[in-house]
């Protein structure tokens, strides 16, 4: 099965997402892809996924991509942020 990709651009401190439909309770299916601006070069990057329940998951971004933890793919929402350092 081909994986679905959530796409983001990160310029400075601004994270922009692109609309996509996500099916709740998906497993081993959803990836996050980040296109980073020049401020982010040579920095290790970590994506942070927060479930509506409040649970938080950190995923190392490698080559601009990471898996989306299945625990956050729930109704009604989940949040995504990224940090470097």
Summarize the structure.
By secondary structure, the chain is an all-beta fold.
Task: Write the topology of this structure.
Layout: E1 4-11, E2 14-17, E3 30-36, E4 45-51, E5 56-61, E6 65-67, E7 78-84
Parallel strand pairs: 1-3
Antiparallel strand pairs: 1-2, 3-6, 4-5, 4-7
3D architecture notes:
Helices cover 0% and strands 49% of the residues. By secondary structure, it is mainly beta. The protein is globular. The strands form two sheets. The chain has a four-stranded mixed sheet, with no helix packed on it.
**Poorly predicted spans:** none
What would you call the structural class? mainly beta
Shape: globular
User: Portion of residues in helices?
Assistant: under 10%
